[in-house]
């Protein structure tokens, strides 16, 4: 018997509902993953879809989700022989006795039950709390991860430890949030703190008023896959239709630059700050800033 399930296959757990797919399951196994067609059960008129109109052209959503490659190929990950499907424990590691840290990466593993794994984790949390305090636990939950509620980086592990007295949070370099969190508020005059969706109101402004767009160190053809599928790609093609010139500054000729750039500036790595200062100097000395 074949059934179809609607499943979010996004790459980040705060991208709720992103990259929604139709997953066909035959006798308990995934047979294929395909885009969700919104007219599967509804008529397009029932959605009252939004539209962006600018310069005599219209941009509107498609009637199906625009899945990225990793979502379409997720079946391969589910049935990969390398996937760890059950809890495993090192054969010579005893949480209540000898732990043999010298054998990490050497000794084999044995399968254990989910109940035993839960007991071990709970026991280790209690042990660390008693010996070192709650902040003796380092929690790596600040990064991107799959759209899962329990074990994703933005999931409930931090909530659990917070309720137990706190924890030490790993803080990466801000290689994702920094641009739109700090840069956007200066460029657009708003503060989408903790949210990504308010910035979507920027697109009508860009479409109506922009003559030139600068893409600095980004690739809209691949980077946004985990959140909005191919939407960024469609927008970039539409900006070109509107006559907006696009300049890409990046050391590599990435996919976005190869497809959309009217001009590609192959800057040398680690010289961005020098170029920033040079541009600002030109603005000030020649009076070309607004």
UniProtKB/TrEMBL annotation:
<dbReference type="InterPro" id="IPR049032">
    <property type="entry name" value="AhtL-like_N"/>
</dbReference>
<dbReference type="GO" id="GO:0016491">
    <property type="term" value="F:oxidoreductase activity"/>
</dbReference>
<dbReference type="GO" id="GO:0009055">
    <property type="term" value="F:electron transfer activity"/>
</dbReference>
<protein>
    <submittedName>
        <fullName>Uncharacterized protein</fullName>
    </submittedName>
</protein>
<dbReference type="Pfam" id="PF21423">
    <property type="entry name" value="AhtL-like_1st"/>
</dbReference>
<dbReference type="GO" id="GO:0030288">
    <property type="term" value="C:outer membrane-bounded periplasmic space"/>
</dbReference>
<dbReference type="InterPro" id="IPR050612">
    <property type="entry name" value="Prok_Mopterin_Oxidored"/>
</dbReference>
<keyword id="KW-0500">Molybdenum</keyword>
<dbReference type="Pfam" id="PF00384">
    <property type="entry name" value="Molybdopterin"/>
</dbReference>
<keyword id="KW-0560">Oxidoreductase</keyword>
<feature type="domain" description="Pyrogallol hydroxytransferase large subunit-like N-terminal">
    <location>
        <begin position="23"/>
        <end position="75"/>
    </location>
</feature>
<dbReference type="InterPro" id="IPR006656">
    <property type="entry name" value="Mopterin_OxRdtase"/>
</dbReference>
<dbReference type="GO" id="GO:0030151">
    <property type="term" value="F:molybdenum ion binding"/>
</dbReference>
<feature type="domain" description="Molybdopterin oxidoreductase">
    <location>
        <begin position="83"/>
        <end position="290"/>
    </location>
</feature>
<dbReference type="GO" id="GO:0009061">
    <property type="term" value="P:anaerobic respiration"/>
</dbReference>
């Amino acid at each position: 018997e074949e059934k179809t399930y609607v499943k979010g296959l996004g790459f980040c757990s705060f991208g709720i509902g992103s990259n929604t797919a139709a997953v066909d399951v035959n006798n308990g196994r995934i047979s294929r993953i395909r885009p969700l067609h919104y007219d599967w059960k509804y008529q397009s008129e029932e959605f009252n879809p939004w539209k962006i109109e600018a310069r005599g052209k219209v941009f509107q959503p498609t009637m199906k989700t625009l899945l990225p490659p990793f979502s379409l190929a997720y079946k391969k990950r589910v049935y990969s022989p390398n996937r760890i499907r059950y809890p495993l424990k090192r054969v010579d590691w005893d949480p209540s006795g000898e732990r043999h840290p010298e054998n990490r990466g050497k000794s084999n593993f044995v399968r254990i039950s989910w109940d035993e794994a839960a007991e071990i984790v709970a026991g280790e949390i209690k042990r660390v709390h008693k010996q070192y305090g709650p902040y003796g636990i380092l929690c790596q939950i600040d990064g991107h991860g799959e759209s899962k509620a329990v074990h994703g980086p933005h999931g409930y592990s931090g909530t659990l430890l917070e309720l137990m007295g706190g924890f030490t949070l790993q803080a990466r370099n801000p290689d994702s949030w920094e641009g739109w969190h700090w840069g956007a508020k200066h460029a657009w005059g708003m503060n989408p703190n903790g949210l990504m969706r308010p910035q979507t109101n920027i697109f009508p402004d860009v479409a109506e008023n922009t003559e030139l767009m600068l893409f600095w160190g980004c690739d809209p053809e691949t980077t946004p896959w985990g959140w909005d599928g191919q939407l960024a790609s469609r927008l970039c093609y539409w900006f070109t239709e509107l006559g907006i010139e696009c300049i890409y500054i990046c050391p590599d000729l990435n996919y976005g630059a190869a497809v959309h750039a009217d001009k590609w500036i192959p800057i040398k790595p680690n010289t961005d700050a020098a170029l920033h200062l040079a541009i600002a100097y030109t603005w000030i000395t020649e009076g070309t800033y607004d």
